[in-house]
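Sequence in, structure out. First:
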Amino acid sequence: MAQIPLAARPQKDIRVKVGADNYEKHVSDINWPSNQTAQSWHGGTPDAIAPDLSEGDQVCNLTFIQAWDDEDSFCRFAFDHAGETVTISYKPHADSDVEFTAEVTLIRPQIGGKVNQFNESTISMPSTVPTLVPVP
């Protein structure tokens, strides 16, 4: 068997595009948790197994800074366009060879938080299953 080298690296310079606008300076976390659940039925003999994979609803979780005084901030965009469907593109690294895209429905973000802190908001938006797209 071949030894496959590991090329993992921490995220430090992501790209997040919503529609035509780049918001990576506003976003601290983006993820699509798996929407699949494995299950199996076992009968009375060792070979009586029926495996299955169930698909649930897909969501996209996005955490971002609350910058309400900035008309162009992502929190204002999400607040003003709640209920609308937009395309989100995500590159795990600025120089990445891949990008993930999905259609998401924006929801209104949390407003406010603790005093003397940068307040963030996390929204969990209905999403299509992301598509992995090679970047030329």
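Second:
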Amino acid sequence: MSYSRFAIYYVPPKGALAAFGANWLGWDVEEGTPGCQPDVPGLRDITMTPRKYGFHGTLKPPFRLKDSMTELDLRGAIETLAGSLKPALCEGLELKALGHFLALTPYGETDGLQRVAAACVADLDALRAAPNAAELARRRATGLSPRQEALLMEWGYPYVMEEFRFHLTLSGRLTEPQLRAWTQVLSTRIPALPTPFVVDQIALCGERLDGHFELIQRYTLAG
């Protein structure tokens, strides 16, 4: 399989939460196949934007490899990184509105998640190609703070390091009435959420030629 971009995600292990996310969004990132989306009016429309990424928490945002780097180079670097990282733990996950979209977000102490994400961004950066003009323009279109602009230029993405907030996306952009309505719908469908919430592995995912992401390999955090 040929991939145009790669990303480092947290992909929930097989179980009730992973199955829910795959079906809710309509794409199973682990299997690389469509999910069995529930027959809920409007669901396909509100999940159109996040669908191609699958149910995941971003650790290192999608990036292109430098011309001098290969997927094997990337796999080796991730294996080394995972071997040095300790798992991250927080109290649990909860459904929240993040701006104009809905997501599962961690609560309690999140320093461990910040640590894992920062390492994924920094330690793998030597393999990342610099963003092109179109990519930079797309990131700047929503308006960036001076710090976010600096992060974009340093790491290729504006919402990393101290601007990072771990989340598992469940919708695209919603209006205030939609946020309230879909929160009610989700609250009746989300399975029991993990307490504590543990990130003890990271996942290399690739963007296929059809634009959808799929899991390539999981790596256990063994530091």
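Remark: The chain has a mean pLDDT of 97.
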